[in-house]
Specification:
5-stranded parallel β-sheet; 36 helices; about 900 residues; binds magnesium ion; 6-stranded parallel β-sheet; binds thiamine diphosphate
Length: about 900
């Protein structure tokens, strides 16, 4: 609410205003809120018809959404809950302070949890239901920087030892420690969702909530009232991902979704909106997106003051302050609050006249008042038809006093001096003496204490402890998969198909499989036609929570756009991030819901790693299973699209994700081998890995699998076609991948026919696999110098009896082949697609990047010359014969 909205017209009569307000009150009292709403709506319509241009506002006043009169009874013992919360606060603080005493600068955060403690404790004591055999459980995304508080509670619950807390951020200590933030990879029995990269968890939570509905509508899990809670910071909403998907949540009526935004008005450096009001800004964004918005701004102490304020002056005043001013009020004295906040109007001052300065300073904010927070959560829990966002006003560093409460430096505060610790201890009544306090010990009352009994009984009533991650599925059997994939081992019988088409063929077959058919989740961001998947629209159906309310324009065609409530395809629209949200939800359902869904997310490869790598990293951390398919990958298969679409880097970026297996296959049977083995490893063996497979749209005849090369395909390379020259004088080994493999085959023919050079062609399906294998062998040998049997990298083994010069070409950066050259028996010449590229056709692009057959031939001749095997004039002539321009611009820099 901006100040202008409150500028009073000069002829306004206060009595008249009063009369209007009173009549509304009486309607409310006599007929209830529905009638009051209807009257206001009619008034608004009447005003519009009468020519009054009402200013648009998506905001409500700066007040609690749940009014006092609708506030529910608080069902818990507030005093005991306060004591428990204080203990959680203390141990969370102790954990960070102790860690930083032992290891300077190890980090950790105190102030985030300090501001959010009530928000979590009300959840833990009254709302968050654990996953167990009888109920799927609520899903909670904890704010990453609040991790110390979550650990601290688990310590009180007896789930984490003092030693683990002692080793916060020191996981390598004997006995283990606790990871800095929520990381399922590091604490797979505890954390479910990595949330510390800001903006990811709000988006993931939205798609998680939608995926829950998808599973229900497809009959893969029972319908429940389980909720998805996402806790985020107000600063975090700056991230485009945080708000980027909120319209999906309302469009899909996700009333199973609750966001709690911890509005402490601060981020890392300072105020989130010093010159504005983040709460009102978020309210209008969420209301505009048709969410149910519940503001929890003021604590119970404000109620009697607000009740006396029959003129609405206080709420008006509350709406006037910018956040920078609010923050100042937090750090100032009661006298300052009286003067600066109430002092603008004598009538406001009168409202608080009987109160002492100390009482004024202690007026709590809504997010620190369990009654108000409970009321908001209950309203959210019961709300139907829309997702809810709770905007809870809190103080960053609450309780830290001089050590940081509300100060701009509070986010970084990790050390408290003895005085500050004692003040904190006294404020929260922690039973420690001054001397004990200086040591910052962890403190846990005995098991039979009222606090521990209460805490345990509440969690028992809510089904168990949280957070907890478990694997809740039985492994798949994967029987009959040979039949499923055999067809693709046999080649296309001369028919020209692209690897994308081959993949879609496999997908079609998998969708019909009795075991895995229902579990497949095809995900596509408005690119199904690009990848030739439209035939699946009708057969598998596009998921829509409301079915199809219209007759599609193409209903008379075979492949019409069929939307259905039990549709299987997630056609996400143009959002790679959102699609990744679905991929993550589907790929982790084996743990979240106990359902082995197998996501296949296909997208333009350039908009994958390059655009949403952080989500891929989160998926890896979460032990997500499934297949990412980078369509029309590489730099030279996609004609005409130019440098924004040409992907020369995704296989390089894929190197950085440790549990991701990345493949650049050239033929249908290679893809079949990889997918079949991937399903087995992930869903039968339960490995925490996932797959990245690049696909192309260049059609060619798919060969049959040349013998049993499955092992080589999976390990990263195999000899696809040996030279047929008998007793050759000159030898070469050519390594091709994906789309460029066929260039290597053509080069093999040219070398053989024109130069009598015998070249073998290898398909390198995964440089990443070869690289990881090489470094593992090297590392093992380094650590076991005395071992009789040295480990030999797979590349080295394969090339043991492969004579001649070595030339590699791929549609990716040259660094890919280069990184394994160290384990090759001889020097390697690498060709690749470094550079910006051009909008062009395939042939020109391969010429431009120097990865075509001619360039491979030239590189081979050059290598042979270097080895003294052929004369220079052979190369000179070849350059002419092949039509290569030696003075063409360098693609790397042009
Ligand atoms: C993507 C990303 N960018 C930056 C950071 C670094 N960072 C950690 S906490 C923080 C401020 C958080 O402020 P807010 O979301 O308001 O949370 P609060 O601690 O105030 O509850 C920042 C910038 C991050 N974790 N993730
Ligand atoms: Mg904040």
């Amino acid at each position: 609410m901006n100040k202008e909205a409150y500028t009073k017209p000069h002829n306004m009569d206060e009595f008249e205003v009063q009369e209007w307000l009173e009549s509304l009150d009486s309607v409310l009292e006599s007929s209830g809120p529905e009638v009051a709403t209807e009257i206001l709506e009619r008034l608004r319509a009447h005003a519009t018809v009468s020519g009054i241009d009402l200013p648009f506002t998506a905001n409500t006043p700066y007040a609690n959404t749940v009014p006092l009169r609708l506030e529910p009874e608080f069902p818990g013992d507030q005093e005991v809950e306060r004591r428990i919360k204080s203990l959680v606060r203390w141990n969370a603080l102790a954990m960070v302070v102790r860690a930083n005493r032992v290891e300077h600068n190890i980090g950790g955060h105190i102030s985030t949890f300090a501001s959010a403690a009530t928000l979590y404790e009300v959840g833990f004591n009254h709302f968050f239901r654990a996953r167990n055999d009888s109920f799927e459980g609520d899903t909670v995304y904890f704010q990453g920087h609040a991790a110390p508080g979550i650990y601290s509670r688990a310590f009180l619950e007896g789930r984490l030892s003092a030693q683990k807390l002692e080793n916060f951020r020191r996981e390598l200590k004997p006995g283990g420690g606790l990871s800095s933030y929520p990381h399922p990879w590091l604490m797979p029995d505890f954390w479910e969702f990595p949330t510390v990269s800001m903006g990811l968890s709000p988006l993931m939570a939205i798609y998680q909530a939608r995926f829950a509905r998808y599973l229900e509508n497809r009959g893969l899990k029972p319908k429940t009232d389980a909720k998805i809670w996402a806790f985020l910071g107000d600063g975090e909403t700056d991230e485009p991902e945080s708000l980027g998907a909120i319209t999906l949540a309302s469009r899909e009526n996700l009333d199973n979704l609750i966001f709690v935004v911890n509005c402490n008005l601060q981020r890392l450096d300072g105020p989130v909106r010093g010159n504005g009001q983040i709460i009102q800004e978020l309210e209008s964004a969420f209301r505009g997106a048709r969410w149910n918005v519940v503001k929890v701004l003021w604590g119970s102490e404000w109620d009697p003051i607000l009740e006396q304020d029959s003129e609405g002056l206080l709420v008006k005043r509350m709406g006037e302050l910018v956040d920078g001013e609010y923050q100042k009020l937090v750090v100032e004295s009661g006298a300052y609050v009286r003067q600066q906040f109430f002092g603008t109007d004598p009538r406001l001052l009168r409202l608080v006249e009987p109160m002492s300065d100390e009482a004024l300073r202690r007026l709590r904010l809504g997010g620190h008042d369990p009654r108000k927070v409970y009321a908001a959560y209950k309203a959210a829990f019961e709300h139907k038809g829309q997702p809810t966002v709770i905007l809870a006003r809190t103080i960053k560093g609450y309780g830290l006093g001089e050590a940081g409460e509300g100060k701009n430096v509070t986010h970084q505060q990790k050390k408290l001096n003895e005085d500050e610790l004692r003040i904190f201890r006294s404020r929260f009544d922690i039973p420690l003496t001054d001397e004990q306090c200086a040591e910052v010990p962890f403190y846990r009352p005995s098991d039979d204490s009222v606090e521990m009994q209460y805490l345990k009984s509440r969690r028992e009533a809510l089904g168990g402890y949280m957070p907890a991650r478990s694997v809740r599925t039985k492994p798949l059997e994967c029987t009959g998969h040979d039949d499923l994939f055999n067809e693709f081992f046999e080649g296309s019988d001369g028919r020209e198909v692209s690897t994308t088409m081959a993949y879609v063929g496999m997908l079609r077959k998998m969708l019909k499989d009795p075991e895995i058919g229902k579990l497949i989740v095809p995900i596509v961001p408005d690119e199904a036609r690009t990848f030739g998947m439209e035939s699946l629209f009708r057969t598998a159906g596009i998921y829509s929570s409301v079915g199809q309310k219209y007759q599609p324009v193409d209903v008379n065609t075979l492949m019409y756009y069929k939307e259905a409530q039990d549709g299987q395809i997630l056609e996400e629209g143009i959002t790679e991030a959102g699609s990744m949200g679905s991929f993550i939800a589907a790929g982790s359902a084996y743990s979240t819901y106990g359902v082995n869904t197998i996501p296949f997310f296909i997208y333009y490869s350039m908009f994958g790693f390059q655009r949403i790598a952080d989500f891929i990293w989160a998926a890896a951390d979460m032990r997500v299973r499934g297949f990412l398919l980078g369509g029309t990958a590489g730099c030279t298969t996609l004609s005409g699209e130019g440098l924004q679409h040409q992907d020369g880097n995704s296989h390089v970026l894929a190197l950085s994700v440790p549990n991701l297996r990345a493949y650049d296959p050239a033929f249908a049977y290679e893809i079949a081998v990889i997918i079949q083995d991937g399903i087995r490893r992930m869903y039968k063996e339960g490995e925490s890995i996932f797959y990245y497979i690049t696909l192309m749209n260049e059609p060619y005849a798919m060969p049959a699998m040349p013998g049993d090369v499955k092992d080589g395909i999976l390990k990263g390379m195999y000899r696809f076609r040996a030279s047929d020259i008998k007793k050759p004088k000159l030898r070469a080994q050519l390594f091709g991948s994906g789309s460029i493999l066929r260039e290597a085959l053509q080069a093999q023919d040219i070398l053989s026919e024109k130069y009598g050079i015998a070249a073998d062609v290898w398909s390198v399906t995964s440089y990443k696999a070869l690289y990881n294998d090489g470094i593992e062998a090297e590392r093992w040998n380094r650590l076991h110098p005395g071992a009789k049997q040295k480990r030999v990298p797979y590349v080295t083994q394969q090339l043991e009896n492969a004579p001649g010069v070595l030339v590699a070409a791929s549609d990716y950066l040259k660094t890919l082949p280069n990184m394994i050259s160290q384990w090759m028996p001889r020097r390697l010449a690498s060709l690749g697609t470094d550079g910006f590229g051009r909008s062009e056709g395939r042939k020109s692009l391969r010429d431009f990047f120097e990865v075509d057959a001619r360039s491979i031939v030239l590189a081979t001749l050059h290598e042979l010359h270097q080895d003294g095997k052929i004369e220079r004039n052979v190369i000179d002539k070849a350059i002419k014969d092949l039509g290569i321009n030696p003075d063409k611009p360098n693609p790397v820099i042009s």
